[in-house]
Amino acid sequence: MAKIGDIELGDFPLLLAPMEDVSDPPFRALCKEQGADVVYTEFISSEGLIRDAEKSTQKLDIYDEERPVGIQIFGANLDSMLQAIDRVEASNPDIIDINFGCPVKKVVSKNAGAGILKDIPLMVQLSEAMVKRTKLPVTVKTRLGWDHDSIQIMEVAERLQDVGIQALSIHGRTRAQMYKGVADWAPIAEVKNNPRIHIPIFGNGDVDSPEKAMSMRDDYGLDGAMIGRASIGNPWFFKQVKHFFKTGEHLPEPTLEEKVEIARRHLQMAIDWKGEKLGVFETRRHYTNYFRGIPNFKPLRMKMVTSDDAQDVFKAFDEVLEQFA
After folding, report:
1. In the chain, how many domains are there?
2. What is the pLDDT of residues 198-246, one digit of tens each?
3. Residue 263 to residue 278: CA distance in whole angstroms
4. Do 120 and 145 sit in the same domain of this protein?
């Protein structure tokens, strides 16, 4: 039974990874409905939060139906991070997560995200200060290391646990790899099998089939799987994994009607949350996967991903059913 603080997550929980412009409240709600055990917000800049930047403060929106929910923040300045944690705590999440893994250049160049993997003492100092600042459980998401020659994930895990971090999600790539190559779960399993480690260790990276989730559980012995890219336009993935765990069989694909229905709801919730312009724009990345495998789908997909008018997109959903159902 995996636990973060006092939050019981069951055996081998599935976590929705924090993904920029993806894991917003509408998408988190859909993933939760479809079996995600914990969902995380998009990552939020501590500097943006303390300056009241609208894009950052809007990401603090959380809703009861998505609990347990973690708010993820990133930064490398201790004072800013502590002020940000106060703002985050006021939003009343269940978990606060620190991003020490984002490989994107504009984040790393400020020593935040995966940039901090070059300064482990600072990573530990920030984590300890944040644990002391809040009553909420604090977790960390990170990568194996900065590059292949500087992997120190075992030391990192021990030191973070020692200062009070209550769970660790590890992406099986270094920062240098970005998202290329294959995620290596073996070093994550070594952390899990370290007799000194007693906090949950969640694996992340390349869990894109129920079989891989099962392998992470059975072959690598991890405490849970954090799912990122496999869920984009496919919130059913969590349900599919759980069905496979229970029965050893693949859940049938959702029907076209079910796919259209969830795409509709997704778009409508996004519009309700952030207005038509952004709602339409930020759901585009999901449509390729929602309707994957439909022959000759390209003309309709182009309509969905190029129109700025919500009614045009809803009309394209209707046309999917007219043409292919």
Report:
1. 2
2. 999 999 999 999 999 999 999 999 999 999 999 999 999 999 999 999 9
3. 16
4. yes
